[in-house]
Amino acid sequence: MIYLDNNATTRIDDAVLDAMLPFLKEEYGNASSLQHKLGRTAHQAIEKSRSSIANYFGASSKEIYFTSGATESINMVLRGIFERYQSIGKHIITTKSEHKAVLTTLEILTKKGAEITYLPLDNQGNINLSDLENSIRPETILVCLMQANNETGVIHPLAKIAEIISSKDVLLFSDTTQAIGKYAFDYAKSGIDICCFSAHKLHGPKGIGGLYIKRKTRPIQIEPLITGGKQENSLRGGTYNTPSIVGMGKAFELISLKYQEQTAELRNYFENRILQEIEDTAVHASHADRLCNTTNILFKHVKSAELMPKLINIAVSSGSACVSGDRDPSHVLTAMGIAAEDALCSLRFSLSKFITKEELDVAIEDIKSAVQKIRKDSPIWQLYKSGVL
Ligand code: PLP
């Protein structure tokens, strides 16, 4: 299997698994049981992981919180901030290209009185910064903009966004789940207030993630989503998932700029060969600043639902894993003004440090022959080629 679906999830790194194993076997103490050695060992491992993650962000360990993943982190921030700040204002700014974890949660908050402004996107997936500035109102409490899109890889200029927001009394939350490990950025120095992460997007285990919540002179208020014990400063109760937290810390330690450059080179090679060798193909958001590992390609008049089953040796996706069972066109591509017909004929390829050029060569040949076969048998393609469509 040639794995080109790394934005959905990644293969666990061997070093991550090795770091986790002792905590699944002999080191099974509850990290909150500080009365005995087993508990203290687990506690120390968790704090080491917290410190590795803080290091990546340029943050202090006290600013890092553990959750079960980015979906929980997003729920905690959106619901928890709305709960605490709604007496000040109920207005939130975002875009329609956010992950469903954001969009679905905001829809639910709308029923509780939240007013949402969705900033328009251009055909490269970018927002207009003056639209953002003009949308901020006295009752705006939060701007929620992802750093990098999971379907197209488009990167929002977070530093500039933060600069606009810095003069206003508004919090900035960024879903940084996809950008972490794939894009160098100074989170601590930027004006972002909160961002989130998920270990399984960076060769760590599934079901673990967290938040970086900045400590400010006026502390950020978040109502807890999961109440219980006093874990995570009473912001998230529940027994620590020690093996996964340890694995996540290791995954952060393994992040390297070297892999990002290598992945970008391979992604460009893959993209260029597809464009050159298969007619009527196009890369979405090709003029935008994009993640090094992601490419979303339109194969004109070849439905992805028809193409994917023919690529039996390639793991690929037509969009976000959370919605890829849908027959609807991608909400991200349609938010960029891409026609539904073209959105339905687009595939997302997402690479990782484990992919090789040889694997990409095989994938390109497989894709080429599958596309050609589908088109050969397609009346729509014949009409299109003869200029009728
Ligand atoms: N945000 C983005 C941009 C994502 O790509 C994902 C994963 O698909 C999530 C949030 C949700 O992450 P998790 O699987 O950790 O809940």
Automatic annotation (TrEMBL):
Family to which this protein belongs: Belongs to the class-V pyridoxal-phosphate-dependent aminotransferase family. NifS/IscS subfamily.
Q: Which InterPro entries match?
A: Aminotrans_V_dom, Cysteine_dSase, PyrdxlP-dep_Trfase, PyrdxlP-dep_Trfase_major, PyrdxlP-dep_Trfase_small
Q: Quick check: keyword Cell membrane in the entry?
A: no
Task: Tell me the ranges covered by the Aminotransferase class V domain, including all copies.
Answer: 2-361
Q: Name one Pfam family in it.
A: Aminotran_5
Keyword tRNA processing belongs to the record: no
Q: What is this protein called?
A: Cysteine desulfurase
Reaction catalyzed: (sulfur carrier)-H + L-cysteine = (sulfur carrier)-SH + L-alanine
Query: Where does the source fall among the domains of life?
Result: Bacteria
What keyword terms does UniProt attach to this protein? Iron, Iron-sulfur, Metal-binding, Pyridoxal phosphate, Transferase
Q: Which cofactor does it need?
A: pyridoxal 5'-phosphate
Organism for this UniProt entry: Sphingobacterium litopenaei
